[in-house]
């Protein structure tokens, strides 16, 4: 693997669009069971908010030292304002569209002795008017960036993803997509999609051999007119499919502490390296290294340029 391209990374300009979330953590101690029900009582000692979803992708891009802009939709509420504040603190240029009828997506986790005990999700889908405003904003920002990253968490922000991809192609801007669901035809024309192992199985069915995976993955890549298809496979590493064939990189051997947000780190690193001018497989090797580092951290976290270099 080549030396970390620090100067090229600093010049890279990444636009991230997708589902914005706030990850809220309540840390505490557990030393008794509730007399009201057979559940642990957590005495909360510390609270922490982190950027989640597409905002975590942008946070990872910024941590690597690249220039990043974030577009998304939030509600007129405390969680939306917190996403804006945390983004500013992370050095992310933002345009957060406010949907007054929306509650910002919030994932609240309760942890006792570093173990997750409960997660509570609050989520709603944005209105059609907000989605139209988002498309207009993307059209205005595209020309100022080297790559477009679409982070799809199936919360509704990327309902018009096909139009965004078409817009980027017309502008000559590569598109990297973290997909969701089984309707992959909506991603036709993207530069790359990065499904994980489960998502790939939902898209092409279960495979028994590597040859079978290769045949189905290449057929999907050609049908969707992709430059590349990257399957992230947890402990099995990552497999890249391009017109030149199949290339695989093994996972870095280390203790896995928390996989939440690891896909965001991989996507962000891949985007930064492509925006810096690296080839697909070189970019995948850096993304694999970043993924191996971030799973050793608690919660949605980032990998810095220093850690990678």
Automatic annotation (TrEMBL):
<dbReference type="GO" id="GO:0016301">
    <property type="term" value="F:kinase activity"/>
</dbReference>
<dbReference type="InterPro" id="IPR029056">
    <property type="entry name" value="Ribokinase-like"/>
</dbReference>
<feature type="domain" description="Carbohydrate kinase PfkB">
    <location>
        <begin position="13"/>
        <end position="301"/>
    </location>
</feature>
<dbReference type="InterPro" id="IPR011913">
    <property type="entry name" value="RfaE_dom_I"/>
</dbReference>
<dbReference type="Pfam" id="PF00294">
    <property type="entry name" value="PfkB"/>
</dbReference>
<dbReference type="InterPro" id="IPR011611">
    <property type="entry name" value="PfkB_dom"/>
</dbReference>
<dbReference type="InterPro" id="IPR002173">
    <property type="entry name" value="Carboh/pur_kinase_PfkB_CS"/>
</dbReference>
<keyword id="KW-0418">Kinase</keyword>
<protein>
    <submittedName>
        <fullName>D-glycero-beta-D-manno-heptose-7-phosphate kinase</fullName>
    </submittedName>
</protein>
<keyword id="KW-0808">Transferase</keyword>
């Amino acid at each position: 693997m080549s030396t970390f391209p620090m100067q090229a990374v600093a010049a890279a300009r990444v636009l991230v669009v997708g589902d914005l979330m706030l990850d809220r953590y309540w840390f505490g101690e557990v030393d008794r069971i509730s007399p009201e029900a057979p559940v642990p009582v957590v005495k909360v000692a510390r609270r922490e908010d982190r950027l989640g979803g597409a905002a975590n992708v942008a946070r990872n891009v910024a941590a690597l030292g690249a220039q990043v802009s974030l577009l998304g939709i939030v509600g007129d509420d405390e969680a939306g304002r917190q996403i804006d504040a945390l983004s500013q603190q992370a050095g992310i240029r933002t345009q957060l569209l406010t949907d007054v009828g929306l509650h910002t997506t919030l994932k609240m986790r309760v942890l006792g002795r570093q173990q997750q005990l409960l997660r509570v999700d609050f989520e709603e889908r944005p209105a059609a008017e907000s989605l139209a405003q988002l498309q207009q904003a993307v059209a205005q920002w595209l020309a100022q960036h080297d790559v477009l990253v679409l982070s799809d968490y199936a919360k509704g922000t990327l309902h018009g993803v096909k139009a965004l991809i078409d817009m980027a192609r017309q502008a000559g801007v590569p598109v990297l997509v973290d997909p969701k669901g089984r309707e992959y035809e909506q991603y036709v024309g993207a530069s790359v999609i990065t499904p994980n192992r489960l998502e790939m199985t939902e898209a092409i069915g279960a495979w028994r051999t590597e040859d079978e995976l290769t045949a189905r993955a290449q057929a999907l890549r050609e049908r969707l007119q992709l430059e590349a298809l990257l399957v992230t496979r947890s402990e099995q590493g990552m497999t890249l499919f391009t017109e030149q064939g199949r290339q695989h990189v093994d996972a870095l051997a280390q203790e896995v502490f928390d996989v939440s947000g690891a896909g965001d780190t991989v996507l962000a690193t891949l985007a930064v390296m492509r925006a810096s001018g690296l080839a697909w497989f070189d970019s995948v090797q850096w993304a694999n290294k970043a993924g191996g580092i971030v799973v050793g951290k608690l919660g949605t976290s980032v990998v810095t340029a220093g850690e990678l270099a």
